[in-house]
Amino acid sequence: MTSRFLLLLLIACRTWAVKPGVKMRLTQSGINYANGVARLAVLDLIQNMKIENYEGKSGKTTYWLSNIHSESVTPPNSEMTLSPGLNGLTWTVTNFGIKLYTDWRVKHKVWFVPISASGGLSADFSGVRLSLTIGVDLDGGSRPVLRSRGCSADIGGLNLRFRGGLVSWILNLFKGLFENKVKNMIRDRICSLVDKSINGVVADKVKQMRVSVDIAERFVLDYGFIAPVIITSGYLETQHSGEVYWKNDRRPTPYTPADIPAQGDASKMLYIWLTDFTALTFGYAAHTHGYLQYTLSPDKLKGNNSNYLDTSCPTSICAGSIIPEIAERYPNSKVTIKIASAAPPEIKFTSNGIDLVLLASVIFSAGSSNAFLDGTVSFTLSGSASVRNELIFGSISHSSIQISNVNSTIGTVDQTQINRILALGIQSVILPQINSFAQGGIPLPTFDDIKLPDSQITFQDGYLVISSNVQYKGVQ
Questions:
Q1: What's the confidence (pLDDT) of residue 143?
Q2: What sign does the dihedral 386-391-397-403 (CA atoms) show?
Q3: What pLDDT score does 4 carry?
Q4: What is the pLDDT of residue 476?
Q5: Lipid-binding serum glycoprotein N-terminal domain spans which residues (predicted)?
Q6: What confidence score (pLDDT) does residue 313 get?
């Protein structure tokens, strides 16, 4: 039994020891914003509060309360703080005011004579205080879970105003019965509503956090949690896988995320670190499943470049005029170029942006003939990224290509001219497709109701960091 326990412990420790490819941090500024949103939510919750009709009895007196509802709410003060010891948040609402209305009816027997009365009643609650602890956990898998771990409410003062004919002794009797009952009723109802909201609506929204994102219908970006939520006195932090898989093949990759250095900046509400581990695993999955290959054929060229892969072009520039050996061997034909990755691309995030180097095999053929030239191509790209509408976009700013290890059946060919043919084809066809793919955008690990209105990206060696304030459903 002991050996089994130790084995399970080692497995658990190993599981949580995985480095994050993506990390998120909500600062105290973000918690303050969440406090404001929660304050508005509880105002609406109490304003629309409904309480079931009540029937009570005390001695010879029976009373009924019906049509119990909130008439107005005085906005409270509120504070939300991080509670490391509780692994959650503490939310305190003070100086709450609630005006409640109810219809009342009472029956009382004096000897054998029944006496009844009815009317309306306004109850003004003042100095209402609410304290709530919210736990932030995981659901046993990779999704976050919010739970109310305890709620308490206190009523500071209560002022009753009766409407309807009452004799003084009935008023005094009913006031005493009602005052204690309604205090307990409202105190319990407030906590019941808040607990239900946290464990229901709010928890459901948190569960909708993106922990998996499809890319190009072939890949999956795993944003699942790889460690418990970290809560300190200054921030709430989550750690995510950030690994990209082929959609139907989650084989492990040979990469490990770089360490994300500590950062003290807390001027924005939210920070998201994305390491180049995500890009590397995407490249690995793409290469190992044959995704990084392309056939550049004449039908792919448009406009002024439509004849560029011709072998014969007396009055223009084409493959045959750039490399005369092609025109001599294959006149009045068209060239097809097949490119396929030879290894996973090397992708690095640096302080200047994104660098990519891809080694690929290239094969030239003409018409229906066999290949007449092949070699290895080094394809280099430089680019950057931006964030819009909670999506991260890429863009290519520079590219170059260089062929080596050339094998030719048409004699010695100038490699500079081969590069020239490849460069134009890549510039006119392949790069626009890469940019189109990059501009498709990849969702960040947030929620549909969350907006990042002023996102900024800073590149560092091995990672990029997105800093932004947060906006919820248009709440300022």
A1: 86
A2: positive
A3: 35
A4: 56
A5: 25-249
A6: 93
- 3-state secondary structure (DSSP) of residue 197: helix
Q: What single DSSP character describes residue 154?
A: E
> How far apart, in whole angstroms, are the C-alpha atoms of residue 442 and residue 393?
7
CB 221 within 8 A of CB 274: no
162 vs 92, residue with greater confidence? 92
96: helix, strand or coil: strand
Residue type for 345, please? P
Q: What mean pLDDT is predicted for residues 113-120?
A: 78
End-to-end CA distance of the chain: 56
Residue 74's H or E segment, with its range, is strand 61-74
Predicted TM-score of the model (pTM): 0.88
Contact 436, 443 (CB under 8 A): no
| pLDDT recorded at residue 184 | 86
Question: Residue 151: how many CB atoms within 10 A of its CB?
Answer: 20
Facing residues of 238 across strands?
Answer: 24
Q: Would you state the structure tokens that stand for residue 243, as one six-digit string?
A: 């690994």
Res 448: pLDDT: 87
User: Which residue pairs from 321-327 have beta carbons closer than 8 angstroms and sit at least 24 positions apart in sequence?
Assistant: 322/417, 322/420, 322/421, 323/413, 323/414, 323/417, 323/418, 323/421, 325/408, 325/410, 325/411, 325/413, 326/366, 326/372, 326/410
Neighbouring residues of 436: CB distance < 8 A, sequence distance ≥ 6: none
Q: d(Cα 405, Cα 344) in Å, to the nearest integer? A: 19
Closest C-alpha to 464, from 333, 355, 324: 355
* Average pLDDT value for the chain: 89
- Please state, in angstroms and rounded to a whole number, the distance separating the CA atoms of residues 362 and 408: 12
Closest C-alpha among 133, 127, 159, 161 to residue 146: 133
Element (H, E) at 374: strand 371-388
State the Cα–Cα distance between residues 308 and 182, nearest whole angstrom.
Answer: 86
Closest CA to 455 of 444, 447, 331: 444
Report pLDDT digits (tens) over 332-356: 999 999 999 999 999 999 999 999 9
The mean per-residue pLDDT over the stretch 291-298 comes to 94
Tell me: pLDDT of 261 over 80: yes
